[in-house]
Amino acid sequence: MSGDIGNEKLRWILWAGWHGKCPECGEGKMFRSWLKLADRCENCGLDFSFAAPDDGPAFFSQCIVAFPLTFVIVWLQIVYSPPLWVHLVFSIPIMVIGCILPLRAIKGWLVASQYVNKAQESGTEHLWAKLNARARHEADERPGGRHDG
User: Fold this and answer.
1) For residue 31, what are the β-bridge partners?
2) Statement: residue 144 has pLDDT above 90
3) How many CB atoms lie within 10 A of CB 149?
4) Which residues of 11-26 are buried (b: 16+ CB within 10 A; e: fewer)?
5) Which is more confident, 77 or 118?
């Protein structure tokens, strides 16, 4: 039974990330441009400030694509000894494109995973609460900000 819940969470994370949809409602956009996260979901209002994928997408992209492809390119060089232009025309562009194309989906998966699993660095709960409280206070103080008084 708990395996079904885990599979559902994983399916939701993969779907939301792949499609760039809000991990809360599945309707709003997660990204405002190719790799730039939206500030909040236009459908449910989820604030994406919790998301901190940092260098994770680049790391996973390199591990999934660049590392194995490097072995293929080295194998190609050892077995066939092609001229340098073959690597300049084929190997390098394939490596670059192969690493860049999956970045958005990987970033989406990481953000959705952070949200669904309520992930944050261990021991930082109070720091994040203070930081978010200060940011809300500063927003309230700005002209046009919310005034509850």
Assistant:
1) 37
2) no
3) 3
4) ebbeebbeebbbbbee
5) 77
